[in-house]
Amino acid sequence: MKKYIFLVLSTIAVFLTSCDEDSVTGITLDKTAIALSANSTGYLVATIQPENVYGRIKWSSTNETVAIVSDGTVTALSEGTAQIVASVAGYSATCNVTVTAAVTSLQLNRTGLSLKVDSSLTLLASILPVQPEQVVKNLLWTSTNPQVATVSSSGKITAIADGTTSIVASIGSTTAVCTVTVYSKVVNSLTGTNYYLISLDASTAGFLGSANIAADFRANGESNNFYVWNGFNAGTYSGSNFYGNNENWLNLVVTGAGGWSGAAFNIKPGTELNKLKAVTDDASGKYYLHFAIKSSTSNSYAFKMGYGASAVTFVLGTTAMEATAPYGNFARNGQWQEVEIPMSYFKGKGLNYTTGMATTDLFVMLAGGTAGTKLEMDAIFIYKKP
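Request: output the structure for the sequence above.
Response:
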């Protein structure tokens, strides 16, 4: 009895399928040509005419060494051309497939950035080897947290709400990532102008924008360098940086060797260095040295701004260092503390930036000689307040 029922149902299914396919008048594909890089995939959608008629679509490739197809998903295998064919009831539609060299490198123009809620920015992707525009259009953009920020098919990021997300660009198995931090309220230290960067993460620098950066003195291993003279080892990172981004900061631990510790941002002469003249020439009193620091110990820290005979030392803590009494102190709770000192203070102590300055240690840090003392700093820059 069970065999009889099965045979009847099978016969009915074949009959219904045959009836539908007898009614087919044509088939089309949503694309007549696509370009893919090797090891990537594309997608085709077949539509049977007339509407509401069903048939079993057979998919095939005329050159399976170049591309294969399964239920409309085209997988590119090697350079060359092929035709993808979708057929049903004696009707067929074709799509020409061109496969280019496999993508070996995908890079974005930003690896991190910060955006204010309701603002937007478009990322640019660089693909190697260079691909035709048809292949570039296959770049897939996704956001790991679309509640924070979304991304369009062209790489345009739109900030939605406070938080962090990763914007991922992919083509085949090759990917690139940009970390995006979204703020609903911009902190005061990011609302100024004329930023002279000494140490700042890429996301925050991107938020400021190149037009608002007067000079970039961040270490680059060429004209700008960060030197550790003595007594420091690299520290370990925990948590986020001062602006809440998942990017590293200056993190050193005193070794105790030699009884002291020192490090500096060193700048070579040139056009960028000459731009500092505007800071000490300014009479508005709006230029400030800004940095963030955190510590759980009570030791003093000494810093030096400037170069040569006009350099000015200042100390944070309760005891003198470098024959200099403390300028002030900060909360020692292991959390980031923001420090801002008017550049007029340094000018009053003799600091004077000029054109044609020689190679100089722009910002010097001393943490004493007690082993285990940490020096953790971030967001070091000079800027002009609104």
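The longest helix spans residues 2-23.
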